[in-house]
TrEMBL record:
Designated name of the protein: Tryptophan 2,3-dioxygenase
Keywords attached to this entry: Dioxygenase, Oxidoreductase
Native source species: Sipha flava (yellow sugarcane aphid)
GO BP: any one term: L-tryptophan catabolic process to acetyl-CoA
Molecular function GO labels: heme binding; L-tryptophan 2,3-dioxygenase activity; metal ion binding
SUPFAM superfamilies named among the record's database cross-references: Indolic compounds 2,3-dioxygenase-like (SSF140959)
Length: 129
């Protein structure tokens, strides 16, 4: 019985899955060079400029969302409010993974991320059964 208690205590001090996934996403080598992220930002800005959205409030919401992706302080505010869980660097890694998911170097990592999302969804459903 004491062994189980020790194991339980040990799990309280070890990093949780979210922390480990964030570390993994933050460690993506592509994040060391801002070239891809800068290209992504330019594409997002162009998309917003070319938007045919006639509803100004909707367009402003999109712009605010994009700003929260690119501006670390805005992202941190959302994390502090409990609206986001990933660090800014981990979020950037996840976005790049999703964007380049069909490329050879990103396909497996993207499948891992998809599997984690599937597991989270199944656990959420199971919790409410």
């Amino acid at each position: 019985m004491e062994k189980k208690s020790e194991e339980f205590e040990r799990t309280l001090t070890e990093p949780n899955l979210l922390t480990l996934v964030c570390r993994w996403l933050e460690s993506m080598p592509v994040l060391q060079d801002n070239t891809i992220w800068d290209q992504y930002r330019r594409a997002a800005d162009l998309w917003l400029e070319e938007s045919t959205e006639t509803d100004i409030s909707c367009l402003e919401k999109r712009r605010d969302l994009m700003d929260s992706l690119f501006k670390c302080d805005q992202h941190k505010r959302l994390v502090d409010q409990g609206n986001r869980k990933f660090t800014h660097q981990a979020l950037k890694g996840a976005i790049i993974l999703r964007t380049y998911r069909h490329e050879k170097g990103y396909a497996l990592a993207n499948r891992i991320l998809d599997s984690l999302v599937d597991i989270d969804t199944m656990l959420s459903k199971w919790r409410f059964i």
